[in-house]
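User: My collaborator and I are trying to settle a disagreement about how two of our proteins should look. Neither of us wants to argue from intuition anymore, so we agreed to look at predicted structures for both before our next call. Could you fold the first one, then the second, and keep them clearly separated?

Assistant: That sounds like a sensible way to settle it. I'll keep them separate. The first protein:
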Amino acid sequence: ADSHNDGKLSKHPLEEVVEVIKLPEFNPLARKAPSADSIDISPAVVDQLSDLVGTISGMYRENPFHNFEHASHVTMSVVKLLSRIVAPEFDEETLQMPKGKQNVAYMLHDHTYGITSDPLTQFACVFSALIHDIEHQGVPNTQLVKEK
């Protein structure tokens, strides 16, 4: 994996990758949070969210692919993928174990980078999908570089 360059040993690019985003710590009690289906959202908040999505849709350009319809499909796909990250139910005995002993729960949290136990991270994933191509010009980056 290392290559020689002018007699110096260089790292493989993947060895230089560092995490810059702090992901949530493992919290076994997060599984005790109410399910999304059991949370009531007031009509005022529903209206605000509807207005926000409408504003976002207006920020997309009319182009053949990187448009709001595409963003909607990506968003629905992310929601579906998140729903497929299934966490097993844990009994009280498991929840009371020290952090290192809660093997299944901790491994699941670690394997999913904390997504399974952090609603804010889940929201960030869905919101990112919704806005990922705002202002996209509809042409590849290589074309934009050529036009400069």
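The second protein, kept apart from the first:
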Amino acid sequence: VAGGAISKPEAATPAAEDGGAASPPPLTEIAPQPKAESTAAEAASKPEAAAPEGAVSISPSPPICAAVELKAEGTAVGATSKPEKRPTIGDQVKILDTENTRQYFRSGVGGIFHIVKDAKDKQPYLVENSQVWLHESDVELIG
């Protein structure tokens, strides 16, 4: 090149012969990489390999919608629904067959009773005609 001028390589952005705009350089195809079988924690702990020059790096992002776990009855855990009412004084409850009721209130298992006291603690309920304090898991609210 004469006079110390540096010429631009023709392959990079050749100008159209008719005076039009320069065309963009050709795109290089990147070979697909095999999927890595690793967890998100493993992936976060590994240093990232350098991408080829000009390649666009896309990092994984968390899923847009959260997974919904299903209960055996077919209703979604965490689904927006009306919270269950906690039994309290005056409510009718069915006495369930639990370890506590089998040991201390066998005659009441399966029966329907009114709650007469609610201590609002871990063993809150006293039902009519009984001196046995019941857990919330020992009773089921009726209607």
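Some points you might bring to the call about the second protein. The beta strands are 92-95, 112-118, 125-127, 133-134, 139-141. The CA atoms of residues 95 and 139 lie 5 Å apart.
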